[in-house]
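Assess this one:
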Amino acid sequence: MARRFAPACLVFVCACTPGPEDGAREAPTAIVGGQVAAPGEWPTAVSSGRCDGTLVHPRLVTTAAHCLARGGPGSFAFGEARDHAVRTVAVDRCVGHPDHERRKGADVAFCLLREAVDDVPIVPVLSACEAAEHLTPGATAILVGFGAAGEEEPGGGLKRWVEVPVHGTQAGAREVLVGTREKGACTGDSGGPAFLELPDGAWRVFGVSSRMAPSTDLGPADPCAGKAIYTSIAAHLVWIEESSGIDLTPFEEERCPRAARPP
């Protein structure tokens, strides 16, 4: 799949680098099976230390609801290394989805920042109609996270990315299954983003890392790689916007004409 420059330039980083597959780099082999992000790559992927998140608006970060179990994060780190952040931004408050413990597909939360981050290029959230058209089996997703690189290779704290296949959705399209046994998410990637490139080269963020899917042999889930379950942001856009008071889809009419929107 040919890709244009990815959303990869931090304004406050000196060098602006092109996307992860610009012909100058080898394709990824394996987060697990992936590679460490170069300076400025995937700048909206952030870390709280315990979990990851995605800057989807200058004042709003999406993350997983289970990441709030022991209290919300106090701040998010921007940059390529969790412990050597380019910038740390304090959190005002976090809100987890009220149905998180009652039904599948509600492992999503958002955190409002105390100050707006206006110098990081935002990747728009995938809309409902875009998800219905493009988030289909066989599509390619990019997972980004600060977690471990494998069971015996902790390596947590460095931002990594990996290209994986989309297998489909479940739980009423509130969850998306991605990854393989060689490439995928691992411990510490919870709350982090999944990106999708549209046919016109535009990028969207569509998922929040939730958990690993059960193994096919009905045994316990693999702790790393295998199929990972990402909560669909599109399925919870109305809740996020109403609860936060922030419009994440200001160009919804252009991107998703009313006649093309899912019921």
Summary: The chain has one domain: 1-245.
